[in-house]
Design goal:
The protein is mainly beta. It contains 5 helices and 28 strands. It has 2 domains: 338 residues, Pectate Lyase C-like (3 Solenoid); 34 residues, no CATH class. The structure holds 2-acetamido-2-deoxy-beta-D-glucopyranose (4 copies). It comes from Linderina pennispora.
């Protein structure tokens, strides 16, 4: 068979998608140089080598950044002491979650002196066209998170542990923040012991994002509900977010799985697929806050989760969440709006009180059909996700 030259070239330059879903166009840094930083300064420079006069990262050079060791930022920028507060007093004060006085959070709460690590509050800037990839199970980022801000595009964050950022101190730092970012894949990472959000978007759009195959470990000593579980999991507040959250293992969290909308102009299109939620206390998992948040949750497995879908008293967020054996007549809406049957969620225990099937959540997804992954049956998810997600499995 004769193959044309044009075809040979397009085959050799075509790269496979790193992840399915909204982020499936993302390729990261291939085509650029591969660097292996060894010091904190080298890592910082590899992620973002230049800034413009406003402090925005303007380094768009394609780069593959291999993370072969632990980068421990703790203590590197000094220890701070200031007046903050206690989120909620626990029976044992050693379990009190603390907070820095930011955004009015400490108004009306009991004041206390908070000692924290400055490095946690100054995340690393990441520029466009970068792949940040852990090697084996060796890639770790301790004490500092990543921020993708001001229009960054085409970034892969894969196979690293991000942890130990002012654990137990709200506003002490997020693990990954996206504020005006597009085409991002966050895949096969491990998140643990983060002061505030494990992943947060807003207020500018986070478009075409896939959060796949990660471990989110919420176990901690200081917590919002005094129960050893992390409340601040995922907060999606961007002006035009389009996000897939799939095949993740989430354990011992107590809320915001995710919290969508509710502040400023947050408009969120979210597809939650085949995630395994294991032992969630407090408010449980999905919480759609406002009528500009649209969540389709299908094929997820909830084991020992207080509320798979949570609703505050006057919570109007739109969620379409079919469950095995319940209200099956409404499922045909999936065929109508996304062109296939939805795969129901499953749960082993926990509340069955709120199982919304809002058609309003499906209609904004209609034009994005090609980005909607097809789930596997929910009962297969616990075994599948624990075997394939997390660090050291790419
Ligand atoms: C980034 O911005 C700085 C300051 O404006 C400028 O000197 C530099 O050339 C820019 N770098 C790139 C890669 O655009
Ligand atoms: C790098 O990123 C910029 C901004 O997103 C984009 O315009 C450019 O095409 C990218 N370059 C390469 C070589 O991928
Ligand atoms: C939403 O708000 C943010 C920040 O307030 C702004 O940057 C953005 O342009 C707004 N987007 C829309 C679609 O209004
Ligand atoms: C269910 O979760 C609770 C915490 O909410 C925990 O105490 C209990 O051991 C869990 N049960 C099982 C069977 O995992």
């Amino acid at each position: 068979m004769k193959i044309s030259l044009a075809l040979v070239i397009s085959l050799s330059t075509a790269l496979a998608a790193v992840a399915p879903g909204f982020g499936s166009v993302t390729r990261g840094g291939p085509g650029g140089v591969t660097v292996t930083p060894t010091t904190l300064a080298e890592l910082k420079a590899a992620l973002c080598g230049s800034k413009d006069s406003t402090g925005k990262c303007n380094d768009t050079t394609p780069r593959i950044i291999k993370i072969t060791k632990t980068f421990d930022f703790r203590g590197s920028e000094g220890i701070m002491t200031e007046t903050g507060c206690i989120t909620k007093a626990c029976p044992n004060p050693a379990n009190n979650e603390l907070a820095l006085a930011r955004s009015g959070f400490c108004d009306g709460r009991t004041s206390t002196t908070v000692k924290y690590d400055a490095a946690g509050t100054t995340p690393l800037l990441v520029g466009s066209n970068k792949s940040i990839i852990g090697v084996g199970s060796a890639g770790k980022l301790l004490g500092k998170g990543l921020i993708l801000k001001g229009g960054q595009n085409n970034i892969v964050i894969q196979n690293i542990q991000i942890s130990d950022i002012n654990d137990g101190i709200i506003w002490g730092g997020d693990a990954i923040q996206m504020d005006g970012a597009s085409n991002v894949v966050i895949d096969h990472n491990h998140f643990a012991r983060i002061g505030r959000q494990m992943i947060v978007t807003g207020f500018s759009a986070a478009k075409f994002i896939s959060i796949t195959n990660n471990y989110f470990d919420g176990r901690r000593t200081r917590s919002s509900f005094c129960d050893g579980s992390h409340y601040w999991l995922w907060l999606f507040l961007g002006a035009n977010d389009k996000i897939t959250v799939a095949n993740n293992y989430i354990y011992h969290t107590s809320g915001r799985g995710p919290h969508t909308g509710g502040l400023k102009n947050g408009t969120i299109r979210l597809h939650m697929v085949n995630n395994y939620f294991d032992t969630l206390t407090g408010e449980g998992a999905i919480d759609g806050m406002t009528t500009t948040s649209f969540t389709l949750a299908e094929g997820n497995y909830f084991k020992n989760v207080t509320y798979p879908v949570y609703s505050y008293k006057s919570d109007p967020g739109y969620v379409f969440a079919p469950f095995v054996g319940a209200q099956t007549s409404a499922w045909s809406n999936c065929q109508t709006y996304i062109g296939r049957a939805c795969v129901p969620n499953d749960q082993s225990s926990g509340s069955t009180a709120y199982r919304p099937l809002h058609i309003e959540a499906l209609t904004p997804l209609t034009i994005y059909r090609k980005f909607l992954m097809t789930p596997v049956v929910a009962s297969a998810v616990p075994a599948l996700v624990t075997a394939s997600a997390g660090v050291g499995k790419i």
